[in-house]
Amino acid sequence: MVERRPTLGILAHAILIVGVLVVALPVYIAFVASTHTAAEMVQSPMPMLPGSNLVENYVTALNGGSSGAGSTAAVGRMMFVSLVTALVITFGKIAISLLSAFAIVYFRFRFRMFFFWAIFVTLMLPVEVRIGPTYKVVSDLGMLNSFAGLTVPLIASATATFLFRQFFLTVPEELVEAARIDGAGPMRFFIDILVPLSATSIAALFVIQFIYGWNQYLWPLLVTTNENMYPVVIGIKRMIAGGDSQNQWNLVMATAILAMIPPALVVMLMQKWFVKGLVDTEK
Fold this sequence. Notes:
Blueprint: H1 6-33, H2 38-41, H3 54-63, H4 75-106, H5 112-121, H6 131-140, H7 147-151, H8 158-168, H9 173-181, H10 186-197, H11 199-214, H12 218-223, H13 232-239, H14 249-269, H15 271-279
């Protein structure tokens, strides 16, 4: 039994509050910057209280057409590209990983473990390692500046395959036999039994992979040269050009705040499922 001490409780809360303040301070400064004009943002000292240009700055950022030295693309379009990219990567990774783990665990074929370890070894070959050959293939296939070019090279996931394989190995053999006696084929067993049992794992992977897809920077930086195909992370980089006086820092910060909203919503809305998928030991 853990002993409850008031002093330790106060200390724990104090540490948590300090941690929250440290994490929240940059977000607060970005929000304050997004509510002022560009001229006010280059003044010294920088304003630390919200200004009166909040609605104007966010509407300008969403619609594009600012007068800054960098990119003036509409942030609304950038967020749409990021959303499509993140969802395609997420659902693609989960679907392919479920099917590959199902095949490795429940089908008996030659070199089964060889193929599993071949998939697992790709953990040592992330996109950053094979980025040159991958870019060459995507370019030769005419997939630059397209959703296919942004998503297809990032869909495969050895980590998710390994996690689903480990979970499938815990499913009782009696359940497989019962499904076979009832006349369920492999795909019926997969869809009606394995997928529902994997719901919490799928939810946890959805959160992780969505954030992974949303925050992609290096690969989109290479394969997108058209403003209409910029993800929002690349859009923020393209908006910054020249010296401080030439950048519309208020719009850059507004874009940064907008870019935080979707992944934050996913984490908050799926927090219960995410935690359950990571810690739940009941199979």
